[in-house]
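User: tokens in, sequence out, please.
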């Protein structure tokens, strides 16, 4: 008796696109790098921008914070809407639009004549960046076959980690040779090169049946996210989430987002399909990513101050010291799929969270004279942990959804990541500030009463006053560094707790079998459906080539 093996489903990606998929991924990685790199470069330029003209813009601390926050507010507020529009209008079109706006914003920032202009132009950059990030991941889902998604998304995730770590190095090199605006102007040639590559290589794709657009749903999502992030930012700035400027927008944002969810459950054409979250693999992956970035962005915040203010390294040296974090992500992210194949998604993400939590516990061993090699080992372990969390969690999210919803799925992924990161900076930053104030307050009695508040706000505030001879406060340097190290230990334990919570979520809810990775949890198409999808893709390729609209 002979048996006939079931016929393999035909390829979902047209051959013309499949042949150039790695070139397409390279273009997408460059567009991703320039968006993620920008924020990490800006952190290095803060002190220079604060310098009086002509060296900088003479920006105050508050203006510097809003140069970062204006970008974050617009970026996070539009992320979900941008992903939705990509599914409806075409991901390539949305990506090109986002890159053009981001490049224009970068050029304007480099020519800003005042802090107010810089803040406004940073918001323009955030507007463009919101259309870039979800489109890159959505396009990856549509140019790679399902079995190659883990490898492609691993490279995509590694690029994010690389950009976060090399930003300070790039910024330090630019500021060593050029004026402050160079940290923005450098984006322009990269954007131009990426745009050329996109026009030539990247195919368009969209949801063939998007339904009617729901303006009220879009508005509710934007208002809720912007209010929530604004409140989180204000609470972090003041190290007090009880102030009216913080808790009112936080509560208001949560109320609006709850109304958004309730409305989406009843809407005829929802912008977000709430039933996606009933899939525990999808929900657990989203939460794991949010918690991982909560911890990562928090430690990035205090790590820079430890390296520069406590240990005395320059911004460029600080960037180089964080390279092990990038190297580990670059090496392990594309290889996380091998761990998944052997042990499953649950084990891989849980192991990653365990490494992240362990790295934060490792921060408690760092003091003022600890060998710097210890920090290098900690950074490498942390990078390896992130590499084991991000690709499997992202693949699980995207594979839980139909491919035509890739833009919306990518937007959910990135929105939770950005919200988690913003919460990490705000909450862990507030914890760091509170612990530091508690540690330094007993040493400020020698200062005039008017100076005690500014001196106790941060280690930079204390060291700034200690450096001014007229205050005779040089004796504050050692207590300030000791107080910061203690505050860093407390904050690191808080970040470790967030990572431990992510570990629990992974163990409780993620799939244990590797079979669920890269597609088993996603809706399966029949062979006929696959043939039809391939034909539609080929029609899209023909339309791209002739300029005619596709069906």
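Assistant: Sequence out:
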């Amino acid at each position: 008796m002979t048996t006939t093996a079931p016929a393999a489903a035909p390829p979902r990606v047209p051959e013309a696109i499949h042949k150039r998929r790695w070139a397409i991924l390279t273009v997408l990685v460059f567009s991703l790098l320039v968006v993620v790199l920008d924020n990490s470069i800006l952190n290095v330029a803060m002190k220079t921008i604060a310098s009086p003209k002509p060296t900088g813009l003479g920006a105050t601390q508050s203006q510097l914070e809003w140069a970062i926050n204006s970008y974050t507010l617009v970026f996070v507020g539009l992320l979900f809407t941008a992903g939705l529009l990509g599914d409806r209008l075409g991901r390539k079109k949305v990506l090109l639009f986002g890159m053009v706006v981001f490049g224009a914003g970068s050029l304007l920032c480099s020519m800003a004549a005042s802090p107010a202009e810089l803040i406004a132009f940073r918001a323009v950059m955030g507007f463009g960046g919101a259309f870039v990030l979800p489109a890159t991941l959505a396009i990856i889902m549509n140019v790679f076959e399902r079995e190659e998604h883990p490898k492609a998304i691993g490279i995509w995730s590694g690029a994010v980690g690389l950009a976060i770590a090399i930003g300070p190095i790039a910024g330090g090199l630019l500021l060593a040779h050029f004026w402050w605006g160079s940290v923005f102007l450098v984006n322009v040639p990269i954007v131009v090169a990426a745009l050329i590559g996109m026009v030539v290589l990247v195919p368009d794709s969209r949801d063939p049946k998007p339904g009617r657009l729901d303006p009220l749903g879009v508005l509710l999502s934007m208002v809720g996210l912007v209010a929530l992030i604004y409140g989180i930012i204000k609470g972090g700035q003041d190290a007090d989430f009880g102030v009216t400027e913080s808790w009112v927008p936080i509560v208001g944002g949560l109320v609006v987002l709850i109304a958004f969810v309730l409305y989406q459950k009843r809407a005829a054409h929802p912008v977000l399909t709430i039933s996606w979250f009933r899939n525990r693999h999808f929900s657990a992956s989203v939460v794991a990513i949010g918690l991982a970035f909560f911890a990562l962005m928090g430690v990035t915040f205090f790590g820079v101050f430890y390296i520069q203010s406590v240990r005395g390294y320059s911004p460029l040296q600080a960037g180089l010291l964080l390279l092990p974090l990038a190297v580990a992500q670059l090496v392990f992210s594309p290889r996380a799929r091998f761990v998944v194949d052997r042990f499953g998604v649950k084990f891989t993400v849980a192991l990653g969270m365990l490494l992240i939590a362990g790295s934060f516990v490792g921060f408690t061993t760092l003091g003022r004279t600890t060998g710097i090699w210890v920090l290098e080992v900690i950074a490498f372990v942390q990078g390896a942990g992130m590499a084991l969390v991000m690709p499997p969690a992202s693949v699980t999210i995207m594979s839980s959804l139909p491919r035509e919803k890739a833009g919306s799925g990518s937007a959910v992924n990135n929105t939770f990541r950005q919200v988690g990161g913003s919460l990490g900076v705000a909450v862990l930053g507030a914890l760091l500030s509170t612990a530091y104030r508690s540690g330094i307050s007993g040493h400020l009695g020698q200062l005039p009463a008017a100076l005690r508040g500014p001196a106790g706000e941060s280690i930079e505030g204390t060291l700034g006053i200690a450096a001014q001879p007229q205050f005779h406060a040089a004796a504050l340097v050692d207590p300030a560094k000791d107080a910061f190290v203690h505050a860093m230990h407390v904050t690191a334990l808080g970040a470790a707790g967030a990572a431990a919570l992510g570990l629990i979520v992974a163990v409780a809810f993620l799939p244990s079998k590797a079979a669920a990775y890269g597609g088993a949890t996603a809706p399966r198409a029949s062979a006929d459906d696959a043939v039809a999808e391939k034909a539609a893709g080929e029609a899209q390729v023909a339309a791209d080539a002739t300029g005619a609209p596709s069906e």
